[in-house]
Amino acid sequence: MAKLFDIMGNFPFKPEDKKPMLIRKQDYSTALYPPNNAFTSDNTFTMITTDTFMLGIYELGPGGVFAPLDIHPGDESYYILDGPVVQRSGNGQFAYLETGEGLFMPEGAWHCCHNFSDRKARILYFITPKAWSEQIPPAVIPTDEETKFYKGPNNDALPNMRDKIHDISRQGCTDDIGHWPVDAKEARETGAVYAVRDFEKLNNVHGTSHPMLMRFITSNDYGHFGEFILPAGGYGPRCSDPDTHKGDAALYCVDGPVTVNLVELEESFVMEPEDTFFIPAGVSYQLVNFEAKPVKVVFAITEL
């Protein structure tokens, strides 16, 4: 539809034109990334790229990899829509991620991704506050001598990561909101990357009158990313308590359909699976489930 660089920060609207918007999957912007070599590119679908975050999906074919290594001036979080995939970090970390699992990569972490399976892999990504600097892809890429991997030529001379990676398997609590899976500022200094397995997500309950399960993959000063799971209704539809956020937000429908009700605007929109909804800062919304099954959406929120 357009070059990735051309839409950066301005899709599907300019920052000054933000408004609540349902974005159907057929309206996503598509591109190869990196754009100059289809053999080592992923198929990228951009849903939203504005002044506060970027939300998109990339696909890797069986046996595929996107290369060379990539880097962002913001934190990046993953939700694996269809796995497994192996995420490689330039510091020597390799994360094997199954469907439904997540990943936290602090800003400045060099990375690429492999699909060693016999089926297409799909990854939902959230980058905040900024996805790329002035050049896409980066102009300077680390060499083999500057990264770590099995029998890498310069492994011994590069930083040892063993003491810089924390165990995140403990049960979290409400006080961890804003600090999950680790202190993000420390991770940005060390470059440590964290796979967030299903049992390592930070669980909480959104609302008391109409409770909804909230599962954080990441939660820090740059943004919050995870799952809303709204149960099925009883005699009527099940809805969440209304909420507003200080920052911009987006919802991606994994299991639906689910209705987004804009409480004060008295407007509602039905999200089908793979649709996205943009919610500007300060707009009150709630989720409504008219189905006889739980529904699931991934949330991406810049500030709670």
UniProtKB/TrEMBL annotation:
Which InterPro entries does its entry note?
A: Cupin_2, GPI/OXD, RmlC-like_jellyroll, RmlC_Cupin_sf
UniProt KW keywords: Dioxygenase, Metal-binding, Oxidoreductase
So where does this one cross the membrane?
A: none
All residue ranges annotated as the Cupin type-2 domain in the record: 57-125, 228-299
Query: What Pfam families does this protein map onto?
Result: Cupin_2
| The keyword Ligase appears for this protein | no
Q: Which domain of life is it from?
A: Bacteria
Protein name as catalogued: Gentisate 1,2-dioxygenase
**Which GO molecular function, any one, fits this protein according to its record?**
dioxygenase activity
| PANTHER family to which the protein is assigned, alphabetical | OXALATE-BINDING PROTEIN
The answer to keyword Metal-binding applying to this record is yes
